[in-house]
Amino acid sequence: LPVLIRHLLDYNMKNTTLCYVEKDGKYLMIHRVKKVNDMNKDKWIGIGGKFEERETPFDCIRREMLEETGLTPNKLSYRGLVTFVSNEFGTEYMHLFHTDDFTGQLVTDCTEGNLEWVDKDKITELPLWEGDKVFLRYLFEDRDVFSLKLSYHGDELVSVKEEF
Questions:
Q1: Tens digits of per-residue pLDDT, 102-158?
Q2: Which of 26, 31, 48, 143 is the right S-S partner for 17, CB 3.0 to 4.6 Å?
Q3: Count of H helices and E strands in the chain?
Q4: What are the CA-CA distances from residue 156 to residues 16, 27, 159 (Å)?
Q5: 87: how many CB neighbours lie within 10 A of its CB?
Q6: Is the distance from CB of 46 to CB of 19 less than 8 angstroms?
Q7: What is the value of pTM for the model shown?
Q8: Is the dihedral of CA 4, 14, 136, 138 positive or negative?
Q9: CA 47 – CA 67 distance, rounded (Å)
């Protein structure tokens, strides 16, 4: 039993958030080109990041959105839970959100990368993680809350399991 308990204590599951901020048929995206040793280097992703101590998914995305963009969501829609499994990066639970109701002034310098409003129909042409295309399709289709398990070997998406 002590070995099992020690194993469970050592197993630190990473929780993150990601939000697609929408305005005039466009999503606010970050082109991740600024950080060294960034697992998302050169990819385009939505707004979000890692949980801090005692944060809920809603607390985390509100803080991350303000820090990265200068915008504050007035209303958030929880869209799904995406479980990433990777041979390189371990396992991560990502809480996915959408908003088209926000206030604030967009920052001109984001420490995470370059911010840009991108037409929704052009997003899948950008360098994205293959799994992102799956949950972006669900967002475009306005599906109800969903759960996905995306398994990667290196940068290659090796399996998608939809759980509804």
A1: 999 999 888 889 999 999 999 999 999 999 999 999 999 988 899 999 999 998 999
A2: 48
A3: 3, 9
A4: 21, 25, 9
A5: 11
A6: yes
A7: 0.88
A8: positive
A9: 10
